[in-house]
Amino acid sequence: MRIVPISSLDDEGLADYSRLTDVALRRVAEPAGGLYIAESTKVIGRAIAAGHRPRSVLLQERWLDDVSPFLASYPDVPVYVGDEPTLESLTGYHLHRGALAAMHRPALPAMRELLRDARRVVILEDIVDHTNVGAIFRSVAGLGADAVLVSERCADPLYRRSVRVSMGTVLQIPWTRMPAWHEARATLTEEGFRLAALALDDGAIALDEFAASAPRKLAIALGTEGDGLSRRALEAADDIVMIPMLHGVDSLNVASASAVALWALRAGN
To answer: Which domains does the chain possess?
Structure first.
């Protein structure tokens, strides 16, 4: 490994960790796709295993042995090493998960390419909380869906908190940004998918009833935390599905709802 002891916090190579927010990292001119931050040795390993290329790594010396296997193919990537106070001063927070890596963002696939071999797809429309996005990706991975589509205004799946909450599964599940609903719906139909919107509606079908005859290829749409799915999403849907609730509770948190729906609608069910 190319180990670089931190001698000055002004080192230009440390700017990814000190002077750039998650949003700013996306706009880094080189590479064109921008960067994201992977946090923890486990997540760094999953990112590299998924084919993502590191630009640099930041850690305490005691974590060198943990990251060295992941960097065998990247001998020229700088590994910045400092003590705990130095790293906390640099980043503004305690690195209790061992390490950070600035990773090059991979190019996103076309929607049609992502759907080609999928059977279960989750659509996230305008979900704004990065914790919810990460938790949904973890449910997608754990419960066997194949891919995720996110709307243009949906929170970034590669935001540091999303990646951390997902336990790195956001780096394993194929995902891409989707076009406007009229175009997305046309592509889903052409690829043989039925679109189910998870929403509160007087005419909605109970989830267990819908699951009893779920189609082979299904896209499940989930809406933003406050207002749920948009009118355009509901108009595009073939079916509106709801999770029956008790004791006056009208709905679950969107991440919890995703887990319930994915379990009920899993492709092998």
So the answer is: 2-104 (3.30.1330.30), 111-264 (3.40.1280.10)
